Amino acid sequence: MKIQLCKKFIHHDMLEKKLSKAFPDATIMTKSCIDMCKVCKNKPAASVHGEKLKAKDIAKLISKIEKA
């Protein structure tokens, strides 16, 4: 699984750590932009296989990624 994160998210380090624990086999990359402007600064957001996902908190984003 390929997960891309935006470096503009305030807690992107914490998000990356939690995602690597939840998905140890996934390739997690932090990019400068994932084309989700205004969302990724305040809320956790990720691009998984080209599908853009967002959530209110990190735990909800992880559950959305599991379903994707």
How do you describe this structure in short?
By secondary structure, the chain is an alpha+beta fold.
Task: Describe the protein's architecture and organization.
The chain is built from two helices and four strands, in the order βαβββα. With about 70 residues, it is α+β, with helices and mostly antiparallel strands. Helix content is about 30%, strand content about 25%. The protein has a four-stranded mixed beta sheet with strand order 2-1-3-4, covered by helices on one side. Strand 1 (about 1-5), helix 1 and strand 2 (about 25-30) form a beta-alpha-beta unit. It has one domain (about 1-65).
List the keywords.
68 residues; alpha+beta; four-stranded mixed beta sheet; 2 helices; 4 strands; 26% strand; globular
Structural class of the helices, strands and pairings? alpha+beta
Number of helices: 2
**Could you spell the SSE succession in H and E letters?**
EHEEEH
Q: What is the 3D shape?
A: globular
Strand content: 25-35%
Strand order of the largest sheet: 2-1-3-4
Question: How many beta-strand runs?
Answer: 4
- Helix content percent band: 25-40%
Q: Main beta sheet, described?
A: 4 strands, mixed
Give the N-to-C terminal Cα separation. 10 Å
The mean pLDDT is 93
Radius of gyration: 10 Å
Domain module count? 1
Helix-strand layout with pairing:
Layout: E1 2-6, H1 12-22, E2 27-31, E3 45-48, E4 51-54, H2 58-67
Parallel strand pairs: 1-2
Antiparallel strand pairs: 1-3, 3-4
